[in-house]
Amino acid sequence: MLRSFRVANHKSIRAAQELVLLPAYDKSRPVTPVAAIYGANASGKSNLLDALTWMRQAVLDSFASWTPSGGVPRVPFKLDPAASAESSGYAVDLILGGVRHYYGFVVDDNMVREEWLHTFPKGRRRVIFEREGADWTFGSTVRGPLDAARDLTRANALFLSVAARSNITECESLFRWFDKGLVCAEPGPTISADVHRALAANSPRRDVILDLLRVADLGITNVELMDDVLESLFGGAIVQHRVSETLRADQDEPEIAERYEVISHPTVSGKSVNLSSAWARAQRSSSRLLFYHGDHPVPLTAAEESAGTRTWLNLTVAIAGALDGPTVLLLDEADTTLHPHLARHLVNLFRSPQINPLGAQLIFTSHDATMLDEDTLSRDEIWFVEKDPSAQTTRLYSLAEFRPRKHENTERRYLAGSYGAVPVLSEFASRRALARGTDPDAA
């Protein structure tokens, strides 16, 4: 469970900013399950999620993928040349296995300047490792090939990346969290391979995904994978083809027969099945997914479904994985991909102790002000981002800082600019700009 994330000098974020997921009101939970980030366009909302995603990739890739002479591929604040000479910092405070972990690092263009991992068993700080330049410190309780791992760690690589691969036990759970416990959802309209795997007949997540599709009121009652349909048609008389292969429309009947290797004359309920007719159905579903609506027996292919339906389908797989993890799920601009009712439903999934007993968390950016009410989001789950008009730097702050009165109309006050983080628009300037466009001599 993520307690906080701190970042400095990353894209539009110049000074250190911190997203805190500790509850300000409901102390029965160790962390808030949701953080909703609001702000004007180009204010830096996406950059905050990008910073956390970049930290994840640095942990996973710095040792294996960053070249020895390539430095650190960071993205510091660019509008002030002085920022390039300053370091960038990233840190997370989280709970793993009931124990608090505090991990972070500081980098410049060339190397890792600092890196540390502290844990807090029984509330007391324990140093796992600390690194500052060429100076290293290891805690007395740490076990494993520490000297060998340190010697393998290049100046531009993170020690955590090396330690987890060197069987240093105290680092493994944190590395796994970055690998599996932090996911950035990118629910575009292209059906992902994860969807195919999750909808297979033997998938443990299939029923959850189908339920999420049904409650979205898309009219979908069932989804079948073409592989499973063919297996059913031939009654077990076929050897399943490799999942990595894709059915192609230019394949002829002998090719499909070779791929499936008919063992005996296939029958369904005692009646012969024509191989070519089954292949014709496969050709109509190049995506290998069949969508059934209502009681209609004729399915639609993925290409015949709307982009919104395909987007929600991709997102349901990420949701199911996050709730099952538990995982921290990042979702940028939820309102551009989801109807407001669906977005509200998504938030409720994570906020429900019954649906989310393991403590998965959702961090998302949005412009949908209709969710700014106490029934959907509590005040400590609402964050704002605004950009300084002169320095063009991003500032992050919580609604809880304003101490709004109970039952205050947060949506109306936000749109009126009471909390900042809204665009400042000039109707006069717009009219003047449009007048210039039609009349070059207009003043």
TrEMBL record:
Signal sequence interval, chain numbering: none
Domain of life: Bacteria
Domain ATPase AAA-type core: 34-134, 269-371
Pfam families: AAA_21 (PF13304)
GO molecular function: ATP binding; ATP hydrolysis activity
Annotated PANTHER family: ATPASE AAA-TYPE CORE DOMAIN-CONTAINING PROTEIN, ATPASE-LIKE PROTEIN
UniProt-recorded name of the protein: ATPase AAA-type core domain-containing protein
Gene source species: Virgisporangium aurantiacum
